[in-house]
Amino acid sequence: MVFFGSSRNSRSTGAGVVPPRKKTLGQKILDMVLPKRAKRKATEPIAPPSFRVLRTRPTYAPATTYTLPTPVPLVVPTPAAAVVTTTPVTVTPAPTPAAAAAALAASGSSSSSSDGKNNAVEVQKLRQLEETTKNMPRYLFRACSPTSGGGLKGLNTINGIFPHAFVDANGTRIPNGGHKSIHDIPYQVTRRMAVGHLSGQRPPRTDPTYSQFSSWAATLALVLQYGHARASQGGLICVLDRYNLPKNTKVYHCPSMMKAGLCDSPYDHEYLVHGPVEGPGFKAVTVQKLLDMGLYNEIPCVLPHSARYWWGPIPQRDWESLFPTKDFSEKQVKNLRKIADEFGKDFALPVLAAFVTLDRRKLDKNGKYAAKDVKIFADMVEDLYVPEEYGTEKSIVQPDGIYVQGYPMVAQLAGLLKQLVEYNYGRGVRARRRIEVEDLSAELGALGLPGKKSQTDLGEKAGRLSTSFAFGVSDVVVAAA
Length: 481
Hints:
Elements: H1 25-33, H2 97-132, E1 139-144, E2 156-157, E3 160-161, H3 187-198, E4 213-216, H4 220-228, E5 236-241, E6 250-253, H5 254-259, E7 271-274, E8 277-278, E9 282-286, H6 287-292, H7 295-298, H8 316-322, H9 330-340, H10 345-356, H11 371-380, H12 408-425, H13 429-446, H14 456-462, E10 464-465, H15 468-471, E11 476-477
Helix pairs in contact: 9-10, 10-12, 11-12
């Protein structure tokens, strides 16, 4: 029996002779099929076929023999034999003052040039900001209480609004408090001051960013809604006339301040007033007084539980869906006139117009009121002076440029006052005045009294029209019809 290709009886053969190994049948078949391969030489290395095999031994350069130098004994000289070698020092003379100034100018030229560019950019931004003050509402509103502004004394009073930097800790006016203008304040200080004011920060009194601003709004709805909860705290509803403010008091719209780099958020409902607000351009009435006179009953849309909180803009779709239109009512306008009179004769007209336009009114496709609605309002304010400037560059609102996007109540207020001016000074007014005078003369004649002669013809010669009969004011110049 053959195992592993060898015979168990191999040892029985002749001594010292190793018989050749017999090939198995399988090996014989392989020899017949496969070609014969030469035997591998013993000198060739065995390596996987994927590697390149180096067939010859490389020839190396003969080895280099290194010889260490003979060590030199270290000899330490005695102090007497020590030799000291000195290096000559080159002394640079001190620069002259002119040379020092030139060197300083050269070293700071790059920084000064960059600072100059930054200052020029900041000045240009402030100039552009001042240009925006021309296109702003003439009247602004504010709600406050003694607890506003951190509860400090003397800030919010019935006689005026005074920012933090203009009163001391006892609430007394500081004669030279604050600055006359934001142009007198470093740009970055003004920026930190405005950002801190809008975010409600209260820096120390000695900090240069101590606020010199007060916050106001063009929409009376936000002011009335915000002030309602402050009735029991002595809350005030304030109004300012931008044309009659103190000389150095300026009004800025927050979006314009953001473009100038002075604040981080637009806050398009908010206006910042720099400086005290007092004198003939200011008036305040307590919220409790307005409550007692029924203001919130006449205009329920400004109550705290109204369908809308008037903080920020309102989309036109929400304005139309949440608030149905209301017709002009002579009774409502009359009741609101009594409340508006609490703000004094100088403010009764704009405050009444703001009250009336808090409700959503019916307007035509051009955004104008019906003639009968304008007449109802005009008749209610016929005893008040309607300045012609309302329709010109000194209008209560500018026809182009005042911010009304998202604030339909402000847009209604602007439209009403503009149409009021057209009603009083526009086309057809001359004929309407003649008819009024003729009607009055007829009534006086029926009573046996002498009739009033129309002054229209007399006024035409001088280019003037007598309006004292209709408005109780002096004559004003009007354009010919």
